[in-house]
């Protein structure tokens, strides 16, 4: 029974390693053009011989696309960067938000 847990742990470590390599292969492409599937295969084989012949790497690539970590642009894979706010603007305090809420309620009651 213990061996099946070890096998699963090794498989998940292997998948995580391949996942990191795929992301690294896409990231290393110059000029933000994106990486083709052939480029990713070559990168994987440079890390571990024969790994690109295993079908698991394509499943991992599909999961990265589905999860939003990668995007497909034409025939190339690019890293999807989330659009976060810059955070440079002032943050509104809880007191400001509460005051604004009260003001809205007063405006509604006045209109009636």
From TrEMBL:
<feature type="compositionally biased region" description="Basic residues">
    <location>
        <begin position="81"/>
        <end position="91"/>
    </location>
</feature>
<dbReference type="InterPro" id="IPR036390">
    <property type="entry name" value="WH_DNA-bd_sf"/>
</dbReference>
<dbReference type="InterPro" id="IPR036388">
    <property type="entry name" value="WH-like_DNA-bd_sf"/>
</dbReference>
<protein>
    <recommendedName>
        <fullName>H15 domain-containing protein</fullName>
    </recommendedName>
</protein>
<feature type="region of interest" description="Disordered">
    <location>
        <begin position="81"/>
        <end position="112"/>
    </location>
</feature>
<feature type="compositionally biased region" description="Basic residues">
    <location>
        <begin position="97"/>
        <end position="112"/>
    </location>
</feature>
